[in-house]
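Researcher: Sequence of NUDIX domain-containing protein follows. Predict its structure.
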Amino acid sequence: MANHRDPIQRVGAYAICISEESAILLSRFAEPDCRWGPPGGGVEHGEHPADGVVREVHEETGYRVKVVRMLGVHSNVWRSPDAEVHAINLLYEVAVVGGCLQDEIGGSSDQAAWIPLAELPERRRTEASMVSYLDQPGCGPGCGVHWVERAQASACSVISAMSGLLAAA
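Model: Prediction complete. Tokens:
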């Protein structure tokens, strides 16, 4: 009989930070994944998601940021080998207010970098589809976009989505 755990619900908070030079701040997950994506991660018990994204960005990139606005919520449910998982990811636009770029030591990521938006589609391991739903107005929970599985296929949509988000600000 398979070992089955109770369902897991995970709340994450992720940051979209675009520089004046049209580069996006990304962090790379440590081995074995080595995927690039927006800095962020799990919200701790009792922590407000906006505080969680500020903490995660500092841990993964060295920058102190402020939340500009919430961009959206992405919900996804899948089955792992031993449990059903429900991930709820909140996406925030943030702005750098201090600190300096540095890589996380001993954490879930191992590198941080500013990537020009024009180069984003060329980075095959960029986990860009996390924000691809933003170019589909009204899309939210149930959209069916699993941002890990569809990362490579939607990298190009990040450029158009981010252009629209920043123009609307």
